[in-house]
Amino acid sequence: IINTLEDAIASTYHPRGYSGDDLNIATLAYRLGGCQLVYAFSHHLGLPSLHILQAYCTFMSIMPTIGPIAASQLDMNINTLILTPLGSVVVPRCGHSLMMDEIALEERASHYRASNTVIGLCHSHSHLVDPTLHMYNSALHIAEKLADGTVHLGKEMSVMAVGAFGDDEIFPIFGAPTCKCEDSDTMVAIFTLTRDRWRATGAEECLGLIFSVATDGDLTHRAAGHHMFFKSELSLTSRLYGTLSHMPGLNLATGDDEITLDFDYKHIFKCQSFFNCCT
Which of 64, 92, 139, 267 is the most buried (most CB within 10 A)? Predict the structure, then answer.
């Protein structure tokens, strides 16, 4: 501390405070350009350095989906990103929502050093090729399969996240490159696997039940959601029936364990605006 004070007096140390905007800009620079861009911005624009970002911000490291979406990947992400950080905190049990959407993805294959595999291949067809780089011919084999259309590069990233009702923080539990060829049966399998792993990892017991599954406007997501969560009307013996049955126009259709289906409302508003314009 004394050395730092002496440096400040000698004008060789210039303490500065950073606002929330400074941290957000530096985080964006890190996401877009990595450590080198953050270093350049820190030295030339006076933005926070990577060391300061790590001190003030929480960085999540999600295990990428290599091959088909598997239970082991979901288990690792749920434990690493949710259960372990919250293990030392008393968290009241409450309802949670599973949310799925797609984000833009640069169509390219990359080397994942942790497992010496190729990532960026679509999860629907990546089982047709061995993504592990055993030798140089392994890379050539993957390139050949990409060229002949056996496997594809992901056009988008399908992301599943979970969030608690009443809390703005969400936690991603898998991200899988997609070539947009999934059908509703595939999506039913993904929804079912995610719901089951939430229970199997102990997250349901520690944090709370899944109350709803929310999707975007994708047709396959909606079809899968209707298949799973429009199975039956809310039971007369349900604790919710006495309240919800008196709300005219409310949809009482649910799936197993009274899980309901939800949509991103901006897609519903866009559909309504489209039909209003047509009429």
Answer: 64
